[in-house]
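Anyone else keep sequences and structure tokens together like this?

Example one:
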Amino acid sequence: MSYVIKPQGDRLLIKMDAVKERVVDGVFLPAAVTARQDALQRGTVVTAGAACVNQWAADMRVLIAKDGGIPVKHEDVEYVLIPEGDILAVEEEDDGLCAGIPEGVTVEDPNGVTTEITI
């Protein structure tokens, strides 16, 4: 028999991204070390409880605090059950604009210093 996890209330079920291992200056840093260094975790919304205020779609990319939510392992996949209010941000595909500034814009600060912004 197969089971599914259905979040209750305002909770979301998030499938967590695998923590990538890093090499810094030739020194291997295992996932356990790099996970502690990062303040955020990334994941993908699987499903949302009926009491969620926002419209959460499956496959939305989200950021949560590294210790946010309750870890759940189901069929060898890592998930987190987290209240909707603990979602810190939603990641969206880059449309070539950053804070309303198009690519290749030159800005001048009050001191007359110009900077070209390339996104």
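And example two:
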Amino acid sequence: MTEFVHEFYINEEEGAKRIMNTTRRYAELLSKLKADTSLSDLQAFIAAKDWKKAQAAAHALKGIAVNLSLSELANEAQAAEARVKEQALTDEHLAQLKACFDATVLEAEKALSSTM
């Protein structure tokens, strides 16, 4: 991986430090981001008005983003979690979170492809 792809989305150096300075393990975890279901779970729970499960899904997404040093996604997920607690997460907020997730996945794929 390059040292930083786009610091806005992915801070690889910080992420590797969180995984005991193991760049290879960090890359393995980053490669699993696209398959994570936290966002789709959040969307489904919001649609069902299951706020408790929605909060858990938002919290899970935030945790993944924080642990992988995906700063923008972490910020968006944290904001979503706060809105869920207030039962005030709108379709617009979900769309913004999804756009950030998709952009982060794209950057992760770029980072991972540069290592091969």
